[in-house]
Amino acid sequence: MRLQFYFLLVFSTQIAAAQNSATSVQKNTWLISNNSLPALIAPVESSFATEAATIKQKTAQLTAEEIAKVTYWSAGAPSYRWNEFAISLIEKNKRTIESNRFLSLMNCATYDGMLITWKYKDSLKIKSPSAYFPELQPLIEDIPSYSFPSAYAVTATICAEMLTYFFPGDSIAIAQKLQEANAAIMNSGIHYKADMLAGNELGKFIGAQFIEYAKNDGSNLKWDGIIPTGEGKWHGENPAYPTMGKWKTWVLTSGSQFRPGPPDDNFAIAEMEKLKSIQHTFETDKNAFFWASSMAKLLLEVANKKIFEYDLDKDPVAVARVYALLYVALYDAQVSAWDAKFTYWGTRPQLYDPTFIPLIRTPNFPGYPSGHATTGASAAIVLSYLFPADKAYFELLANECAMSRFYGGIHFDIDNTTGMEMGKKIGAEIVKFVEENNR
Questions:
Q1: C-alpha triplet 93, 94, 100: angle, nearest 5°
Q2: Residue 40: closest CA among 160, 145, 124
Q3: Counting CB atoms within 10 angstroms of each CB, which of 16, 67, 243, 313 has the fewest?
């Protein structure tokens, strides 16, 4: 029987009714509607035998370098390597403060992509080449699912499209990475060419919709340039991202939803005494330096550890959900922290007392509340929801993260306590949203 399917818009109802084999695929997407899916053409059954023979011959002739690339790109879920690559581009371009925006957009897009991919897979039920031809031995174990379209190709194209939008100056390197990823998966022997082509097409469609969303998320808002004056106010120059508190959030109604009250006018007097009374030890200083790195990177490593510990790496939908919720928690909390920072303009220890020398470099924006404390607490709540047995571990990390800014001398204690309180509320709101909206 000739298998040739044209996916038209009317097919969305068939997709929604399909029996899903993955545990998470019946959840809802962030942006992409089932009513606007592209037309995809599935492979033709009459070509299976010929293509399988070609695949078998090609895998037998791969070089050691090509085999190494297959191993590299098949490690973890499809989005695992792309998050690593995204972090490297963020660091290269010195855009660390924007990490959570970039990564929440990319990972929410990937999550939508995986949900839609599995709806196609489970509707058509096209098996991988080795399922039709047992004598064909792929180089890697395929994801337990149907073959069409390729989850690897969907993910790779989504991530490449979005990273190119974020970092146009790196477009050549990103295109090379996409080519390398697609070649590696084709060389693995787990897909027909049509699986990859359809995956690339679907990835382009999803990436384009998230890029349109990103163009209107408020990140291009202009600042009025006004810095208020007064006791306890931050008084630097050219503060970083002063409009971030007005950027569009994923879950919260706005960055001001959980805005705390202002600190007392003379809060810095007592707070400075607390800071000067710290008894520094190797552990306190190690903590300060460790968490001075990118939160987006450090918590990606934490999430990856749990993904592998709980054997989720062979479930692309579940992994994409972990990444998406982690960066939604970090992003919404960061926007909220910036809303409060640029509402109250709370000073920093070194600005308040120029004789005070902090252990780490003071960031160039207001202090109250601490962004690390806010984002860390929010992420801990969401990660505890995803991995409940590790709740104590995540809470410990959040506390260490917050205290690191106090030990580092760049935040007052009130910045941390206020940030953690706000972050916990944000995390709880995200969990509530996820439960109520089946995300």
A1: 100
A2: 124
A3: 16
DSSP per-residue codes, 372-420? HHHHHHHHHHHHHHHSGGGHHHHHHHHHHHHHHHHHTTSS-HHHHHHHH
Residues in the chain: 439
Burial of residue 359 (CB within 10 Å: 0-12, 13-18, 19+) is middle
198 vs 42: CA distance, rounded Å: 8
The pLDDT value given to residue 2: 32
What dihedral do alpha carbons 231, 234, 238, 244 form, nearest 10°?
A: -120
Cβ(285)–Cβ(403) under 8 Å? no
Task: Say whether pLDDT at 217 is over 60.
Answer: yes
pLDDT digits (tens, 9 = 90+) for 65-97: 999 999 999 999 999 999 999 999 999 999 999
Q: Which residues pair with 41 in a beta bridge?
A: 6
Backbone angles phi, psi at 346, to 5 degrees: -65, 135
Highest mean pLDDT out of 28-37, 186-195, 405-414? 405-414
Q: Which two tokens stand for residue 141?
A: 């174990």
Residue 253: pLDDT band (50, 70, 90) is very high
Q: What is the dihedral of CA 55, 59, 61, 65, to 10 degrees?
A: 140
Torsions phi, psi of 41, nearest 5? -110, 120
Round to whole Å and give the CA distance between 92 and 363. Answer: 19
d(CA 396, CA 23): 30
Cis peptide leading into 43, omega within 30 of 0?
no
CA distance 292 to 125: 48
Provide the pLDDT confidence category of residue 138 given band limits of 50, 70 and 90.
confident
d(CA 423, CA 439): 20
Report the C-alpha gap between 418 and 104 in whole angstroms: 24
Per residue, what are the HEC states of 192-256? CHHHHHHHHHHHHHHHHHHHHHHHCCCCCCCCCCCCCCCCCECCCCCCCCCCHHHCCCCCCCCCC
